[in-house]
Amino acid sequence: MTEQLKMYIGGCWVGSKSGETFATINPATTEPIAYVPRGNASDIDMAVRAAQNAFEASEWRDIVPSERGRLLFKISQLIREQKNELAHLETLDTGKPLAQAQNDVEVAARYFEYYAGVADKILGETIPVRPEILNFTVREPLGVTAHIVPWNYPIQIASRSLAPALATGNTAVIKPAEDTPLTALRLAAICETVGIPPGVVNVVTGYGTEAGAALAAHPNIDHVTFTGSVTTGTFVMKAAAENIKPITLELGGKSPNIVFSDANLNEAAQWVVRSIIQNAGQTCSAGSRLLVERTIHESFVLKVSELMKQLRIGPGIDNSDIGPIISEKQLNRIESFINLAKQEGISVHLGGQRMKDAGNGFFFEPTILDSVSPNSRLAQEEIFGPVLAVLPFDTIEEALSLANSTEYGLVTGIWTSNLDKAHWLANRVRSGQVFINNYGAGGGVEMTFGGYRKSGFGREKGLEALKHYTQVKNIAVKIQI
Ligand code: NAD
Hints:
Blueprint: E1 3-4, E2 7-9, E3 12-14, E4 21-25, E5 32-37, H1 41-56, H2 58-61, H3 65-81, H4 83-94, H5 98-116, E6 133-141, E7 144-148, H6 154-167, E8 171-175, H7 182-194, E9 201-203, H8 208-216, E10 223-227, H9 230-242, E11 247-250, E12 256-259, H10 265-277, E13 289-293, H11 297-309, H12 328-343, E14 347-350, E15 367-370, H13 377-380, E16 387-393, H14 396-403, E17 411-415, H15 419-428, E18 433-436, E19 456-457, E20 470-478
Parallel strand pairs: 1-5, 7-8, 7-10, 8-9, 10-11, 12-13, 12-17, 13-16, 15-16, 17-18
Antiparallel strand pairs: 2-3, 4-5, 6-20, 11-19, 14-15
């Protein structure tokens, strides 16, 4: 029988209070992998209370910061020790290629390693006021942090926010996506093994509208980190606003690769392909728009499509290049965009079909939509599949205007051998990250990440993230001089 898993609340492995469960499905086969508890508002309430108690208890509150760092370091070590097992589980649950899942697990380990090193370097300031006043600031943890995690990079995104939250002394309630709850539960087990005190880390599995909504609206949380869609992000922000809770939102994008004729075109083409097919296009920072100088438009699109034709599509467990889409719902959504392209008379240069010969799995061909109108929904909305929208441009001013023409602003890739041109654009594009002659800089746990405009606000990764998990207290002491 398929395994029945428990969730982790207050240091105990428990079922949901209602006793209900739901299946998590392998998107490559549509078979259930395991059943997890269907947590709802009362389970969330229990988890938040456990996290509150753990935050007040001296076992966590009074721990020496360097010791807190050591615990985080042990988490990173255990993640690495269990790398193959975790990657295997992530591939079954998300469908992503095994090599990608292994990379995700390594990045998760890196988050804990990176923030382990800063646990005893959360510094305040001394501020000169008057001779008889010693004035200083301390950075304190917020309390209970809520983490609502999407299905595209489950262990990586859970670790991205959990590691800085723990490094700064907070406690946490994690609500993984209903499609992919498995590695968050394993992460909780790792926290338990290394000796994170009970209640400091809690994982409640459940649906977004039940467990997720209850977590975002809980009056006793002190911060929400949400990654997912703009629509859900709006709900989460409204719920947090009711209780005046700070929030970090990462809501995806429609990120452009801007390719000039003077670029290293072979390298640019490889990265254009990689940035849209990684995780079958289900990546918030996917390079889903190609803005290409008109003089090389046809030849460059041909180069990109030749590379795409070589990709192996299949179950992630076979270490294909492109795995399945996460669910039937998402597959239908991608198809609806392709139907729209046909209605708008847009040329489907490559792909555009769900894979009929791939068994029951949710596979979709890598797709190029050529000469998309800048105002089309295909150039504006996040499709979240391996679908590249191509828009040619004549001048650098036009490239800039196209780059900034969506409501999003997460990442921009610029490809040119002229650094003056690259900097001119980098200074003017509205996005949280800009990559010149590369895309992603190899991962970047250390690099500040986050959105402009509807891509969200607040910054994750790097030292910048620490600001969101701490609050500053000013203390003034009168002294005899
Ligand atoms: P979603 O935003 O609804 O789900 C993300 C997380 O939010 C999940 O854990 C979910 O359970 C939870 N959630 C859902 N409804 C909630 C609510 N009312 N209150 C609190 N939490 C809630 O994403 P989705 O519907 O699974 O995917 C739809 C679209 O979202 C995708 O097509 C894509 O465009 C976007 N998306 C973006 C990212 C990203 O990394 N930026 C990740 C996943 C999905």
